Amino acid sequence: MQLTRLDIAHLRILEQVRFCPAPGLNLVTGGNGAGKTSLIEAVHLLGYGRSFRGRVRDGLIRSGQPHLELYAEWQDVCARARRAGLRHTGGGWEARIDGAPAPSLTELCAEIAVVTFEPGSHELIGGGAENRRRFLDWALFHVEPEFLPVWRRYARALKQRNALLKRQPAPSALDPWDRELAEAGEALTRMRDGYLRRLEPVLVATAAEFLPELGAAGLRFLPGWRREEQRLADALLLARERDLASGHTAVGPHRADWQVDYLALPGREALSRGQEKLTALACVLAQARAFADDRGEWPLVCLDDLASELDRPHQEQALTAILASGAQVLLTATDAGTLPPALQPERRFHVERGVLREV
Ligand SMILES: Nc1ncnc2c1ncn2[C@@H]1O[C@H](COP(=O)(O)OP(=O)(O)OP(=O)(O)O)[C@@H](O)[C@H]1O
């Protein structure tokens, strides 16, 4: 997809902004607190229905305003003109696509594929497993039509089983939920496993570009139970007594994780903060490349404050690789002086106290 227009109303410091990016590299400059990340946040919201900076109640809606609104126009992979609106009134999200109400945010997020690399992205490697499950599930959501119903089925069964566990039931009362959880959980895990197997060679190649000194990388999938030894149904049965005592389900895909392994390092704890960031960037770019292999086009790539995240050679390397793919890129920086002549933006913007203008 290619974003052609984004109107933003009442998002953090952004009061009323119209942003019309070009197809290639778009650079948005501005001082600290000017509104650069807020702009990236608006694009990310369209693609994920959530911010990477906490929940709506953490200040996403501009102070003193009852709601925030986004309106986007883009060209899809068939060069059709599309449009969508997103509004949060404090109570919840409402979305419209091509003039009609969308039943849920899911429909909007399915249309707008965005990958974001921002100062918190190192959490993908160094943070909790939830970040890494979300990463996996984003890709499956976009490329695997069976994913969403299976994921929903699993989430519903897990919620029901956990609610039942808290009521101290007779153990046999768990049987139907265990069957449901096992069936949906095995299917979900096959998809996650399959995706990581497809992603691995792409990631190995990408990580070799950014971190050749650490040796070839591999991806290890941790499915959430000892899958190589037992089926999920058996793992749930074995854990039943413990689950009844704790009141929650200890095994299953809701505990899944994955990690990047380097030959030259004993584990991810040995990565420096910079190496963690580069590994996260390699994962995000590999995900975008794998998406392009499946869908025939790159997602929109948002890079927030790359200059403060990576050293200059790595910034240039990343930008060169992304731009060679023909992707549309939104890059923010505190000043324009950091880009080499070969990577000049197609369109430049400057934001000051929430007011954006093309320069
Ligand atoms: N709910 C809100 N209402 C009004 N202003 C807000 C709200 N939340 C945050 N802000 C302001 O919005 C600005 C945040 O902007 P943003 O994080 O986009 O800046 P930035 O240009 O990325 O800055 P930096 O370079 O420091 O990361 C800050 O000035 C902050 O005080």
Automatic annotation (TrEMBL):
Return the Gene3D superfamilies for the record.
Answer: P-loop containing nucleotide triphosphate hydrolases, RecF/RecN/SMC, N-terminal domain
Does the UniProt entry include the keyword DNA damage?
yes
| Every RecF/RecN/SMC N-terminal domain range | 3-346
Q: Write down the superkingdom of origin.
A: Bacteria
Q: Which Pfam families match?
A: SMC_N
Localization of this protein: Cytoplasm
Q: What UniProt keywords apply to this chain's record, in alphabetical order?
A: ATP-binding, Cytoplasm, DNA damage, DNA repair, DNA replication, DNA-binding, Nucleotide-binding, SOS response
The molecular function GO annotations come to: ATP binding; single-stranded DNA binding
Q: Which residues bind ATP?
A: G30, G31, N32, G33, A34, G35, K36, T37
The record, for InterPro entries, names: DNA-binding_RecF, DNA-binding_RecF_CS, P-loop_NTPase, RecF/RecN/SMC_N, RecF_2
Q: Which residues form a coiled coil?
A: none
First-listed, main subcellular location of the protein, grouped into a coarse class:
cytoplasm
Q: Which GO terms describe its biological process?
A: DNA replication; DNA synthesis involved in DNA repair; double-strand break repair; SOS response
**Any one GO cellular component localisation term in the record:** cytoplasm
- HAMAP family given in the database record: RecF
Entry's family note = Belongs to the RecF family.
PANTHER family the UniProt entry points to: DNA REPLICATION AND REPAIR PROTEIN RECF (PTHR32182:SF0)
The free-text function statement in the UniProt record for this protein reads:
The RecF protein is involved in DNA metabolism; it is required for DNA replication and normal SOS inducibility. RecF binds preferentially to single-stranded, linear DNA. It also seems to bind ATP.
Protein name according to UniProt:
DNA replication and repair protein RecF
Q: Which organism is it from?
A: Arenimonas composti TR7-09 = DSM 18010
Organism lineage reads as: Bacteria, Pseudomonadati, Pseudomonadota, Gammaproteobacteria, Lysobacterales
GN (gene name): recF
